[in-house]
Design goal:
The structure is a homodimer.
Chain A (H helix, E strand, L loop, with lengths): L2 E5 L2 H13 L5 E5 L5 E3 L2 E3 L1 H10 L17 H8 L10 H15 L4 H11 L5 E4 L7 E5 L2 E4 H7 L6 E6 L11 H7 L2 E4 L4 H10 L3 H5 L9 E4 L2 E2 L2 E2 L4 H7 L6 H8 L10 E5 L6 H7 L2 E5 L6 H18 L1
Parallel strand pairs in A: 1-2, 1-9, 2-5, 9-10, 10-13, 13-14
Antiparallel strand pairs in A: 3-4, 6-7, 6-8, 11-12
Helix pairs in contact in A: 1-2, 1-13
Chain lengths: ~325, ~325
Amino acid sequence: MKIVALAGGVGGAKLAEGLAQVLPPDSLTIIVNTGDDFEYLGLQICPDLDTVCYSLAGLANPVTGWGRSGETWSALESLAELGGPTWFRLGDRDLGTHLERTRLLRSGFRLSEITQRFCQAWGIHVRVIPMSDSPIPTWVDTDEGEVAFQEYFVRRQCRPRVKGFRFVDVEYAEPAPGIMDAIHEADGVIICPSNPWVSIDPILAVPGIKSLLRPAQGNSRPVIAVSPLVGGEAIKGPAAKMYLELGFQPSALAVARHYGAQKEEGLLSGIVIDQLDQNLADSIIALGIRPLVTDTVMRTSTDRHRLAESVIEFNKSLL
Amino acid sequence: MKIVALAGGVGGAKLAEGLAQVLPPDSLTIIVNTGDDFEYLGLQICPDLDTVCYSLAGLANPVTGWGRSGETWSALESLAELGGPTWFRLGDRDLGTHLERTRLLRSGFRLSEITQRFCQAWGIHVRVIPMSDSPIPTWVDTDEGEVAFQEYFVRRQCRPRVKGFRFVDVEYAEPAPGIMDAIHEADGVIICPSNPWVSIDPILAVPGIKSLLRPAQGNSRPVIAVSPLVGGEAIKGPAAKMYLELGFQPSALAVARHYGAQKEEGLLSGIVIDQLDQNLADSIIALGIRPLVTDTVMRTSTDRHRLAESVIEFNKSLL
């Protein structure tokens, strides 16, 4: 069984890690959001790609969810002494990644090639592909004006009220090599519990991806989302706040509506929701989407493994 | 008394530190070689400037002579895991310096402005000026072809036989702001015990500097070199090897000849040589250069202080 997973940062990385535990390496392709990539201190930073890869490689910081374990902070301290910008926290080990990625990009390598090379070096056996080799920066329209994603997310800690999102130049971008084939061959697509607005929508906006996710006539490949909202709250990040500010009641039902039902020109055949949201199951069924109710909060490696198994079983049941 | 010192890396930094101990802050201007500056991992690295500043700020690594004390190496380790280049050793704290300098250069600041800003942040009260704001990369002509300086110096550990040096585009460069005024006002110029070929000659090659160092008619401002060669050997680095490969017997006498006597269209009025080289004093006098014989090896802070005092006294005696 071949599975494609769409992932953003921390939540997506956790489920991706679970799926990598459960599936044989050549059965899993993880497509990662690059909409929050940005240049900082002259370095090309790919936060979601790194979070996913560090998680898969066992290098992730288990406390923060982002960055690396056993990290040191000397470079940033020295930069701070000189009055340089430190609002984006770059650890020393993490810096090694950004320096080498930036060097390779300047040497003419594509981001997808670099990612493959890094995965090899880190002993990651599943396939990780950035959504595109072209930069598609996410800008956030807010009541304080339009700001670049990391400005909104990190520097201003998601304080401005959100009015919309723009994935700059996405219309000129292509999916990175390997993505279309992987989706084409997939027996199931998992939308990880990442922020629908700024982690998954950027991937879906890359020309060609969304339409290929919709199964062709007579093809029953499931597309399953795992809700990042549990009891109306996001486990991490501003997803719930964004739904509210955009005029929606944040809930797993809102996530189901966000992606839409496959049979109604949307994407989903199923959605995995938390036991806390059991009361939403009937409304989800009414949308034409099959719900799976289970414990979706991933605190430990065992949680990730168990949720990944449930999702794979759910996918089989929808085939 | 106003003093200008010309300095390269480790040896120059040590005497510069001594001079900074001995002279009032507004009496000392240190002009630093930038011929060994280069871009590495997309960062602008200025090894001599950093060695001088770290020494003056008390941040230098006392064991290596270059880099910072209390350094960590996480970024380089992480870069090495990814197969990136690690032949130039960049510590994490040091990286903070390069990241901020590179950021400021890209923002349009001149290297001399950035150096001033860094000196302020590091609590350095004497004036440190890079020889020029324009890049003047040193290339080394060798029996294995012409190579960029750091390729020769660090990557190939000075193994190729030297045939000559080229200071690329030096004819289009200008001294950095403040240099000409400082030399003009100086009551003495000290050429620190740095490599004459690749640390001091690049400074002297910047249009305008050398001719201004030669005193105008009736002006008796001394120019004093401190020999980097002691007993025919360099304290550190390839200076002796270079003299040999270029056909000269390496010695304090060769250094004296290298810069030449002021009265013979050269630069020097005096040279400070080590007690080990006392036997060369007469030959130096025969060149028309006054020798000062003293202990020139700087192992401790006290050594640096004492040598700086001797040099300043020597300068006074030559006024």
